[in-house]
């Protein structure tokens, strides 16, 4: 084989890119310092763009299709090269493939809580998280302003770069919306639609389109969540007297489940009789409030109280002495 045959064998005749994963945004064709043969075949698939770069400058950009690389099909690159050595000389350019499909499920979040003026809580700290979709719509801008001449660019690298842009813009939009944290969940879509065009202005210089922006969750400080839970419980009862009874019943039930635990011991040490007395007093007060004149307790009521006292004794909440004293008082009423 002669020198000319060897040189011809080193020329690239077929150029294409079959994506091996869903994460690659930019990929450089591996020419290994070889030249592209004049008349080589270039294949650009759907959702791809091919960029020819001549000594660091963008030459031609090819949309999906099949192309024969001759001077008539490479007007910009041919002009840059001027082809002083003849039109049949090989092309000495770098070829980059760019994925133009939509990349989904990119994550964003606020690294630190956002301080907001809340209509109900006055001031509150909020953290938020979500997803967004993007696609490259201007290959030339994206290559020159963002990607550069890296041999490969992954979507997670773009995600990391945009994180410092997305979070501050979300904070600005949230502050302007003046939405109470209690109503924020119902405003996710509205807030997303408000933030999207604000973010798009920062992505335009890079040739990137923000296809979709979503808020998936927000979180409040622990103390705010606890206060909100208490308010919810209070709203579930008609008045504070019933709410107190509800709280006391929960405490007694938990103590009964664990008679040997710390809760049972603490109550049995001196609070058991007082809680039982409070329970009985509340029952009597409730009966007095429901009737203009006091009504004598029925035998069924007294037997029910005796049964409840027995359960408190079994759970270890009442001592034997406390149980006997209260039992005698109830039996005297019969």
Secondary-structure map:
Layout: H1 3-10, E1 12-15, E2 24-28, E3 36-44, E4 48-54, E5 57-62, E6 65-68, H2 75-81, E7 94-99, E8 103-109, E9 114-118, E10 122-136, H3 139-147, E11 152-154, H4 155-177, H5 188-203, E12 208-219, H6 222-235, H7 240-257, H8 262-290, H9 299-314, H10 320-333
Parallel strand pairs: 1-3
Antiparallel strand pairs: 2-7, 2-11, 3-6, 4-5, 4-7, 8-10, 9-10, 10-12
List keywords for this structure.
334 residues, alpha+beta, Tetrahydropterin Synthase, Chain A, five-stranded antiparallel β-sheet, four-stranded antiparallel β-sheet, 10 helices, rod-shaped
Please describe what this structure looks like:
The protein has 334 residues and is an alpha+beta fold. It folds into three domains: 3-99; 103-221, Band 7 domain (Tetrahydropterin Synthase, Chain A); 237-333, no CATH class. The protein has ten helices and twelve strands. It has helices spanning 3-10, 75-81, 139-147, 155-177, 188-203, 222-235, 240-257, 262-290, 299-314, 320-333, and strands spanning 12-15, 24-28, 36-44, 48-54, 57-62, 65-68, 94-99, 103-109, 114-118, 122-136, 152-154, 208-219. The chain has a five-stranded antiparallel sheet. Strand 4 (48-54) and strand 5 (57-62) form a beta hairpin. Helix 7 (240-257) packs antiparallel against helix 8 (262-290) and helix 9 (299-314) packs antiparallel against helix 10 (320-333). The longest helix has 29 residues, at 262-290. Residues 1-9 and 263-275 have low confidence and may be disordered.
